[in-house]
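Hi R.,

Here are the chain sequences for the assembly we discussed:
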Amino acid sequence: MIERSRLSVRDLVGEAISGALQRPSRSVLTMLGTVLGIGAFVAILGLTATAGGQIDKRFTALAATEVTVEDVGADQITHEMSFPADASSRVRRIDGVVDGGVYWPVPLPDPTLTGAPGMPGDGAGLTLYAADPGALAAMRPTVETGRLPDAFHTSRRERVAVLGPTAARRLGISRLDSHPAIFINGTPYTVIGVINNLQRLPELLLGVVIPSTTALSAYGPPTDAPAKMLIETRLGAAKVVAEQVAVALRPEAPDRFKATAPPDPQALRGNVTGDLNALFLLLAAISLVIGAVGIANTTFVAVLERTGEIGLRRSLGARPQHIAAQFLAESAALGTLGGLIGTSLAVALVVGIAVANSWTAVLHPSTVLPAPLVGTLVGLLAGLYPAMRAARTEPVEALRR
Amino acid sequence: MTPVVSFAGVGLTYPGPPPVVALRPADLTINPGEYATVIGPSGSGKSSFLNVVGLLDRPTAGRYELDGIDVGGLKEADRTALRGRRIGFVFQSFHLLPYRSALENVALAQLYTGPPAREREARAAEALAKVGLSHRAHARPTTLSGGERQRVAIARALVNNPSLLLCDEPTGNLDSATAAAVLELLDQVHASGYTVIIITHDPNVAARGQRIITIRDGVLHD
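And here is the predicted structure of the full complex:
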């Protein structure tokens, strides 16, 4: 019997490529819409991921493990704090808490801080803070010399002080082996330590820190700025800790505290991706549709122009489906090529912008790799109708030219 | 000996209204190695005859056997395959693809029917050599003269080694000197053993055939 006509995939691809390349300038113009559409998609998603990556970078482990509790229920008249005396040990019992404690600026309107009794104040601009050992530990201090106050100093309301580097220099404290003292409004406080860095609340480096119990008995509860609690948690526990801390502090009145956990990085990224990008992605989609229409149009014109070729191929043994496959493959090749070019341009753009801003370019494989295939899909859809028209062309009619 | 073309009461009527008789039922036998010309004025049914013989159209009456195969009962896919393998077409307007070289145009005829890709080029080169165009193998059709283009088309028609070379006004677009050269080539092709049918309106072309069939108002006369 007669061996039927066939068209191998390899030959089909060859015909499609030479068909798409035989009019290069027309092909480039045809691809433009697809290039722009797919390029825009990849660029927008890439830039979003890159910008999101920068937020992630700023969003360090330090920030992610920090919970602050504000006293929003302090007594308006007596200024009595909402924090109980054992606040530090109460929060430490919460699972996930590393350390935590209360601190506040000591309510002295204009304290005189001197390095020797009777001297004029040379500590102008220095702030006096009260902090319990848990709060100091949560600030992640680096001790230059000496030590930090502990439970002993707190329980005995010892008059001891820790200085930041600025305060130590201004008050003339450089060595601690002679147990130097500073004077706050004439009252001596033994300097037991000098710190040179705080990873959290670095503003305290400009001041003098005394134990919270000492400050409370000597100068009373905070008035202008309420007391706050600083808690360091284990990584990932901040949100859960923030939910529990108010109840742990005062089970009978948890609404006197406002706990703030760091924002969720996922939520941060979501905010950036929203709004504006939806608009851009819509524009990209529109340009992709225009790209598809462009390919459809050109392929359709090509079918009309190449009627003679269709007739010839039919006379050479091509079946209608071979003709359809050829035109479909040509439009798919145009779409794929457009998708590849668009993706390449977009990747270059994203990397360029990232380099210009000293960012790290973030391109998800899940957006970059399928992008050229989206071009193929666009080309296939666009070629559907022209290919059907080509397949239906009668060889007798086609050869009459 | 199996005839290449065998008509038994083959006719073609286009359904109306009103019905148009393009080809009156006729009997015709063309044997292997024959050189036949079909002559008639325009509108005489030449194209209908070409379409029926070339399997581009189905007759509405009679029985047509090509190489002894009754093509009336065949499915369209089989008719298409038969057309590609057993019939070599030569057209008045050449129908060469403008963006491909002469060699590629000849090789194209093997795309749907022929041998694996690696053999095609060698066969195409061989066919081009037969028509004396080896030196223009890599030229684009746009740079070829009319006579050269028709020779490329003849090479393309021969590359699958068909049972029948079916030429439709092969010299219609050529000046008389070039036409003579092309007809000379067709004589050589016939001499090398091919069965040739030329359809034409030109008595000078028709005179080249060993057998002249006239067609007028759809009626064939041997």
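Residues 8 and 27 of chain B are 5 Å apart (CA to CA). Helices of chain B lie at 46-53, 76-86, 102-108, 117-130, 146-158, 176-191, 203-206.

Let me know if anything looks off.

Best,
T.
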